[in-house]
Amino acid sequence: MVARKGEAPLPKVNPRTGRTRLIAANWKMNLNHLEAIQVVQKLHFKLRTSDYEYCEISIHPPFVDIRSLQLLIDSDRMNFSLGAQNCYFEAKGAFTGEVSTQMLSKLGVRNVIVGHSERRSIFQEDDGLIAKKVKAVFDSQMIPILCVGETADERSDGLSADVLSRQVSTAIKAVTPEVLSNLVIAYEPVWAIGSGTPASVKDASDGADLIRGTIESIKSKEVAQAVRILYGGSVTSANSRDFLESSSLDGLLVGGASLDPDDFAALIEA
Ligand code: 13P
Known about the structure:
- The protein is an alpha/beta fold.
- The protein has a single domain, classed as TIM Barrel, CATH 3.20.20.
- The chain is built from 13 helices and ten strands.
- Helix 12 (240-244) links the parallel strand 9 and strand 10.
- The longest helix is centred in the last third of the chain and has 18 residues, at 201-218.
- 1,3-dihydroxyacetonephosphate (13P) binds at residues 26, 116, 188, 193-194, 232-235, 253-257.
- 1,3-dihydroxyacetonephosphate (13P) binds next to strand 10.
């Protein structure tokens, strides 16, 4: 993101962590391109200058909305980062229905969600495929938001730590340390997504600490300290502040509460 004259300011580094906070809106399969324009216009109208200084705000609409939002964000000089919810790792070819990282990068996309639990469970994406996507996003000079998290069964079987470290280590193995420092990981316990019952701040922070520890053990302390770790799963304006006060967490990945500009602005302002 390059600051341009007259636009909303760039986010500042959190002095407690040395990292820039990120609040990302995952719209999932909601809002067509006309609705998307209205939501982003209203959100920009609601937010204060200080909100843009507090954190990077990344909007992840369906693919078909991206071009419209790119034009809106550019023409009105809004400081939202443009995001995508998925990608394919091949550059081009006979992959019906897929979208490459090069195509997203050309549209001004900055952050790409990779390995969301809905991709893993509904579309059978495995750790190997997700690792290829993480590498492809970096190769196209964008930032992957790698989603990891255990299911309710894995949690009750005491497997949460094993699942998180396997998901993280497979996804980052082939990425060089210099590039990896830019990675964002979203800890999204599957049982908390869309359930109305978020993880406790302690559980979310413990998950983030475990993820950071895994990166440190595979790569280095320096890289682990640079990676941003978000929490996602039933975040609302009533609980966002609690998560953001944890020094283990660098932000939030928000589903349902990001669809309504009033709710999402309240969540950021909280
Ligand atoms: P909800 O905020 O709707 O629980 O969704 C979380 C999520 O899956 C974000 O990626």
